[in-house]
Give the backbone structure.
Amino acid sequence: MASITLRAAQKAYGDSPAVIRNVDLAIGEHEFCVFLGPSGCGKSTLLRVIAGLEDLTSGDLLIGEQRMNDVPSAQRSVAMVFQSYALFPHMTVFENMSFGLTLAKLPKAEIEQKVREAARVLQLEELLQRKPKDLSGGQRQRVAIGRAIVRRPGVFLFDEPLSNLDATLRSQTRVEIARLHRQFEQASVVYVTHDQVEAMTLADRIVLLHAGADTARFGSIAQVGSPMELYHHPKSRFVAGFIGSPRMNFIPAVVADVDSARVTVRLPGSDEIIPVAASGAGVQVGQRVTLGIRPEHMDIGNGLPAGLVREVLLVERLGEQTYVHLEQPGGEPLVAKVPGNARIARGERLRFGIAPDCAYLFDEDGIALERPQAALGLAVAA
């Protein structure tokens, strides 16, 4: 088992702005940590730094208690699974999985035992004599994972391993990766993805990374926490907008009233008043803020005193649920997520209730106003 520690880590290429900036991060033993973020945020670069495929410009990397900055990749006890399967087409499944062990000159009996054990876990036992061209995409990805498993490393590194699979195979392979992590208790996992579904379902902790100008302004890490912590208690508008599907609705607002546990806002151009469970410390009446409401928290016909009245622009029926797109003067249309059997038609004007515990406020810098940990009635997972 191995922990991973990054201290003041930075990575830049030439004179360009740093891709990785001011990263301080500790990943525990047997933790499943997911690097999540938009394209260009540096998540794959950070993974390659841990693997030893990229050098840090400054700062330190430790695996266990050992400083790894100058240690070659082959000596780091890490195994990496790439987005591309990178299988040898002329080799059988057995030969692909055993290739690294053969290079290490392990005894044939030990190689046989390790490959067959990994094949059993990955349900590849009947495929060991096939070649990659005879396998499905999901089977090829399992072979790539098996090639990493046989090495029994202290750390598994996954770089968007499911992005080449179709939706059904992604779901199946995601379950298999979660099962493998529970089964191999000796290893920690660092997993890179831009897919928040993968992040929310697999991670013990998510490291959400900034991109572009926000990296220079705030550093690479936007927030670190459990999936539910990022969902219920985002620290910024960026985090709130990235976690959740469809994304959170954002509406310009002005503070109308403040007390210690609640901030009431007025929506410009209307008489709509929305109370929000948030700390009023440092907030002034008349201050401009942004109101955030998740689509699943816009409740139709629930009798809540505070709410929004909007015209329906589009109805997307998905079976179990329906997405309702609503007018928003001067901004992007709002989206409400309602039950699939809701009777809603384009052109209707509907009222959506907003509970104070289900709304968020962000200041002009995009920083979230502090809200009670008990908001939404849910404890945040550690």
